[in-house]
Amino acid sequence: MLAMRPDCERCGADLPAHLGGGFICSFECTFCASCADELDEQCPNCGGELLDRPTRAPDLLERYPASTERKHQA
Question: What InterPro entries does the database record attribute to this sequence (predicted)?
């Protein structure tokens, strides 16, 4: 199951799990759409492809909550 990280690793933008706009690689590195575009949709950590992150339905978030661990380093 995806961790559904709450923020963009590059700029710190909030990325709620129930909304679109997040991009992930196969290692679940997470970026917002703006940063993914600036990175040419290539993960700066592993070199993998950044793809649209799926959303998690609000009713499933109750049973399977998204991660609260923020990865952005100020």
Answer: DUF1272
Looking at residue 71, its pLDDT comes to: 87
C-beta pairs of 2-5 under 8 Å, 24+ apart in sequence: 2/28, 2/53, 2/54, 2/56, 3/28, 3/66, 3/67, 3/69, 4/53, 4/56, 4/66, 4/67, 5/30, 5/66, 5/67, 5/69, 5/70, 5/71
Answer whether 0.85 is exceeded by the pTM: yes
Domain count, the chain: 1
pLDDT (0 to 100) of residue 1: 85
Containing structural domain, residue 18: 1-53
pLDDT in tens, 54-69: 999 989 999 999 999 8
What CATH number is associated with residue 29? Answer: 3.30.40
